[in-house]
Amino acid sequence: MLLQSALSRAEQASERAEISLTSKRKNVLALLMAAERPVSAYELADLYREGFEQSVPPMSIYRMLDFLTENNLAHKLNSENKFISCAHATCEHSHGAPQFLICEQCHKVKEAAIDKSIFIELEKAVEKAGFVLTNPQLELKCLCNECAQAGKQTD
Amino acid sequence: MLLQSALSRAEQASERAEISLTSKRKNVLALLMAAERPVSAYELADLYREGFEQSVPPMSIYRMLDFLTENNLAHKLNSENKFISCAHATCEHSHGAPQFLICEQCHKVKEAAIDKSIFIELEKAVEKAGFVLTNPQLELKCLCNECAQAGKQTD
DNA sequence: GCCGGAAATGATATACCATATCATTATCGG
DNA sequence: CCGATAATGATATGGTATATCATTTCCGGC
Ligand SMILES: [Zn+2]
Ligand SMILES: [Zn+2]
Ligand SMILES: [Zn+2]
Ligand SMILES: [Zn+2]
């Protein structure tokens, strides 16, 4: 079961991060990991009820998500109003500026670090325009190869 | 009055674009231009009532915004759930992939074209990850120089 | 000018996302 | 055990977005 392996991964992450990952936070993280796609806070509340047979109010989910995102165990996709587990939640990989490739068709998301050279060029361009980059997170609307392929056939 | 000059600019834009820019759409565009910052559809409904002494339901505002964004006269900032007039609404400048620098402090926004070399590198990186860039629009959380300066003093 | 279809707008309902606030419970060192 | 702090629950409310059907406006053909 996906949830099972996600749980053990969340366990590992919890041990690595020296932070108070309570059982509910861990469960929310596990649900995010099992989802493998962005989910909303309200969806998580539903998933929690179904997966753990306990009702958790959305308000609490939001707070747990705050915690998880502050600790880079999860991310918020601002352009989607959804959340996703960090691709590096289970490795010690230090967390740089993330970049999300979002398939507009199947909503699969791939997280990667922003390419170093791109990052530097971006910073330069921003500075030139009279701004300072503070919280770089790129969310790029794409098609995954599968969906791009499928699209071509029906064109 | 800002609205007045925005109206004439909207007029120009309307003439340039060979599209059916109705008077209400033009008014919404004028309001966006006068705002000079991102505004929500519901804010626009309020502004419309105040500015033109006529009540327009949010639903209609959304539709007019759809039209304006489809024709690159306005843009939606997906990460803010707000709308902004296109910086090139009044020039014949063909519209490439836009990039928005958003001041997290004062919410000023600057629109610029994505730097060509950055765009190419982005496309390469995306392709390498098994995706195809479809609708490139960068929304970068920044501080404008004024706010960055102000921030330093109070640190 | 009248007519009929298409486009635009209005009206209403509803779903979904997010936060504010106060109450309650869990946790932990002393 | 106590008191402080952190975490969670409960409730209310606000903000954003869409679905659907009704009405009006616009425009070309007659
Ligand atoms: Zn991450
Ligand atoms: Zn896909
Ligand atoms: Zn533009
Ligand atoms: Zn600023």
Automatic annotation (TrEMBL), chains A, B:
Residues holding Zn(2+): C103, C106, C144, C147
A Pfam family per the record: FUR
Keywords assigned: DNA-binding, Metal-binding, Repressor, Transcription, Transcription regulation, Zinc
InterPro entries with a match to the protein in the record: FUR, Fur_C, WH-like_DNA-bd_sf, WH_DNA-bd_sf
Keyword Transmembrane helix: no
Cofactor: Zn(2+)
Family in the record: Belongs to the Fur family.
Name recorded for this polypeptide: Fur family zinc uptake transcriptional regulator
Native species: Reinekea marinisedimentorum
